[in-house]
Automatic annotation (TrEMBL):
Keyword annotations from UniProtKB, A to Z: Ion transport, NAD, Potassium, Potassium transport, Transport
Annotated transmembrane regions: none
Domain RCK N-terminal, first and last residues per copy: 1-117
Stretches assigned to the RCK C-terminal domain: 137-218
Species of origin: Streptomyces antnestii
One Gene Ontology cellular component annotation held by this UniProt entry: plasma membrane
Protein's name according to its UniProt entry: Trk system potassium uptake protein TrkA
């Protein structure tokens, strides 16, 4: 897979290193000469250019990329790169970094963004996820379809503890994608049972999040009593 990363700062280089280790082809683009540190990620291609310019993206052969990552520290730049990648070059997957959570609402399909990653929001979500049981925590937002990756740790008193996955009437536009049980990561089947303490990861429409939280947090006594 060929991936172009706009922004060769610490974030961009870190992403590039991970992708290269996984066998992908990576191009790092930055307009600042001081950011071009080939020795830090020698396996990557490097391009000194402005990723907001069509001529630069032509030189980068963006049309050959499977993924473009807009990872600069400037939200305006990330939006422009995302829009150009999607509309001018038809890149199948565009991931954009959100630096200021106040700008998060802009990072959607109208600007060519498939996945928006807000570092401040993700960090706060991970803190919430570490300390909360029974509360739905939003980890990641997907622009297409207005869906989110959300997590909930099933509380011991939940009415669903001990219930087969296939017997649960999940809300519409909701999919259970992973169960984390201790050190195990399970791809849930219809026959798997939910257990108290399970970390459940869902892809769910935002409009269904409250309904999903209510379903998972309902107490046994509320059902039996």
């Amino acid at each position: 897979m060929r991936v172009a990363i706009a922004g060769a700062g610490a974030v961009g280089r870190s992403i590039a290193g991970e992708l290269l280790e996984n066998g992908h082809e990576v191009l790092l683009i930055d307009k600042a000469p001081t950011a071009i540190s080939v020795e830090r990620v020698p396996q990557a291609e490097w391009l000194l250019a402005d990723a907001c310019e069509i001529t630069s993206l032509d030189e980068a052969a963006l049309q050959r990329c499977n993924v473009v990552i807009a990872a600069t520290g400037d939200d305006k730049v990330n939006l422009v790169v995302s829009l150009l990648a999607k509309t001018e070059y038809g890149v199948p997957r565009v991931v954009a970094r959100v630096n200021n959570p106040k700008n998060e609402w802009l990072f959607n399909e109208s600007w060519g963004v498939d996945v928006a990653v807000s570092t401040p929001r993700l960090m706060s979500a991970l803190v919430e996820e570490a300390v909360s049981v029974g509360d739905l925590v939003r980890l990641l937002r997907f622009s297409h379809g207005d869906a989110n990756l959300v997590e909930l740790t099933l509380p011991p008193e939940s009415a669903l503890a001990g219930t087969r996955v296939g017997d649960v009437h999940w809300p519409e536009d909701t999919s259970l994608v992973t169960i984390i049980r201790g050190t195990r990561v399970l791809a849930p089947s219809q026959e798997d049972s939910l257990e108290a303490g399970d970390e459940l990861l869902f892809v769910a429409a935002q409009a269904r999040e409250e309904q999903l939280e209510d379903l998972l947090s309902v107490r046994r006594e509320d059902v039996t009593g």
